[in-house]
Structure formats: structure tokens, C-alpha cells
Amino acid sequence: xxxxxxxxxxxxxxxxxxxxxxxxxxxxxxxxxxxxxxxxxxxxxxxxxxxxxxxxxxxxxxxxxxxxxxxxxxxxxxxxxxxxxxxxxxxxxxxxxxxxxxxxxxxxxxxxxxxxxxxxxxxxxxxxxxxxxxxxxxxxxxxxxxxxxxxxxxxxxxxxxxxxxxxxxxxxxxxxxxxxxxxxxxxxxxxxxxxxxxxxxxxxxxxxxxxxxxxxxxxxxxxxxxxxxxxxxxxxxxxxxxxxxxxxxxxxxxxxxxxxxxxxxxxxxxxxxxxxxxxxxxxxxxxxxxxxxxxxxxxxxxxxxxxxxxxxxxxxxxxxxxxxxxxxxxxxxxxxxxxxxxxxxxxxxxxxxxxxxxxxxxxxxxxxxxxxxxxxxxxxxxxxxxxxxxxxxxxxxxxxxxxxxxxxxxxxxxxxxxxxxxxxxxxxxxxxxxxx
Length: 436
Prior knowledge:
Layout: H1 3-17, E1 111-115, E2 125-129, H2 252-266, E3 354-358, E4 364-370
Antiparallel strand pairs: 1-2, 3-4
Organism: Azospirillum brasilense
Protein name: Pentapeptide repeat-containing protein
InterPro entries: 5peptide_repeat (IPR001646), Pentapeptide-BTB/POZ_domain (IPR051082)
């Protein structure tokens, strides 16, 4: 198409949009427009399916509601372009510039293309093509409620982009940069987010079930209410991230186990059943103030969990991972935490000491059952005013822990390490007799 022909198409399209005589909707289907300067053009509702617009300048153009099905926009400049509700299924947008572009409610899913004569015995058929936006610049783009399901977004830059409510299930976002991106309520099920930089991103109520976040940067990200069942967080940096998740965001089995345990507690064992959550991944769960006394939590993963003021009396939490969890004010008297990783955890004001065993009549027997923390790792933990009186702390590592005002009297601290620990105001038992 010659420049004069293109200008004529655009003029007729503008007249068509304004319902003037002589107007005609632009039909540039399969047209070769590679490298054309289309900055600021008005192509609302234009037909551009399969058009070759690679390297085109479409900055600040209006392509809202346009049909761009399987269009070629490789390395096109779409800065500030209005693509509201545009059909971009199967579009090729590798390396495109989409800074500040409007992609609200745009459809960027894969698309099926009809081919003829190339199939078996020259038959016709369909070829499914996924949308390719790899390496594109989408900083500050407006993409709320856009549909990018299954799209290739490898190595894209989406810093500050607004993707609230976007559908991105199955999309590939490997190594993408999405700092401060708004992904609230976004559907990211099964997404490959390996190595993605999501520092400061908003992922409130997002669906990340089955997503791969291995090696991702989630520093200071907001994941409040996010669904993360089966998500792979291996090697992810969650420093400062808000990842508290209510029990409703976990599997039905976990929800039922918690519900049955609450019933068991409230009916004194007449109904319900004791929770057995051994080996379960409850990372970042928010169980503030719950009563899980007597539960089996052996080998459980409670990384970053919010357990403030909870009751965990006589629980078995041995060989568990409680890294960076918050148990401030919790009561763990008589609990077993043998060989548990408590590094970076908070136990400020918590009680991890004796419990008075009661008889069948519910009366105290006078027999004390001490909490067992042998071999546990408290490296860098905060144990300010923690009451560990009478607890078995043999072989525990309190290196660099804050034990300000902690009560360790009558505790067994044989072979315990306190290198670099803050023991200001702490009440310690006498040093163990080396000959004992």
C-alpha cells in the first residue's frame, strides 16, 4: 500500500467514525505497513488482523476496539497508544515499546490461525499461536482486566504497570521486571515467574496457585490475601513482604483439619478431631490468636507465619521450619520444638516453659511437663521477655539472638550457644557443671 492510499483509508475511516458521508471503516487486514509512521492516527475499531506493522511508529495512536488479531507489531513504538479492548490475540509484539500504553480489557490470549495447503496431504487446519510480547517495554502501562492468559512475557519490563484484575493464567514471565506493578486480584495461576523482580509489587488477593516463583524478588511486596497453594517459592527473597494468608487460602484438607481441631478444643474432645498437619506447608499463614493446643505440627513449614497470641500448648512442632515467623505473645508451654529452625523468628513475650499436667478429672497433678527445644536454631531470633523457664534448651543455638529480659531460669542450657546474643536483663540458670 502506498502512502497516498494509506492516507485515503485513514481519512475515510475518520469520516466513518463521525458518521459522515463517504466514510468507510478502515480495512488493513494482512496489509504490509512495516516501518510506517502512524503516530497519533485514529484507528478506533479498525480492521488490522494479520497486518505487518513491525517497526511502525504508533505512539499515541488510538487503536481502541481495533481488530489486531495475529498482527505483527515486533519492535513497534506503541508508547502512549490507546489499545483499550483491542483484540490482540496471537499478536507478535516482541520488543515493542508500550510505555504508558492503555491496554485495559485488551485480549492478548493466543489465537488460532487458519492455514491451507500445508497440512497433511495439503489439507487445511488450525495453528494455535500464543501472543508474543517477550522483551517488550510496558512500564507504567494501564492493563487492568486485560487478558494475557498464556502469553509469552519473557524478559518484559512492567515497572509501575497497572494490571489489577488482569487474567494471566499460564503466562510466561521469566526474568521480567515488575517493580511496583499493581497485580491486585490478578489471575496468575500456573504462571512461570522464575527470577521475576516483583519488588514492592501489589499482589493483594491475587491467585498464584501453582505459580513458579523460584528465585523471584518479592522484597516489600504486598501479598495480603494472595492464594498460593502449590506455589514454588524456592530461593525467593521475601524480605519485608506482607504475605499473611488466611486459612481460607489453603487447601480444603487444611481448612477441614483446622475446623475439626477448633471443634475438638471447644467440646473438650467430645466432637471433632485433633489436627494432624505434619509436613504441611503453611508458609505465611495468618492464625493470629488461634488455639492449636495438642495439634501434630511435626515437620510443618510455617515460614513467615503470623501466629501472634496463639495457643500451642503441648503441640509437637519438632523438625519444623519456623523461619521469620511471628509467635509474639504465643503460649507454647510443654510444646516439643526439638530440632526446629527458628532463625529470625519473633517470640517476644511468648511462653515456652512448663505446663502442669492434669488428671482425668481435669485437676492439676502437680507434675510439670517442660517444653523440649533441644537442638533448635534460634539464630538471629527475637526473644525479648520470652519465658522459657524450665525448658530443655540443650544444644540450642542462640547466636545473635535478642534475649533481652528473657527468663531462662531452671532451663537446661547444656551445650547451648549464645555467641553474640543480647542477654541484657536475662535471667539465666547457673552454668552447667562440666563434670555432670
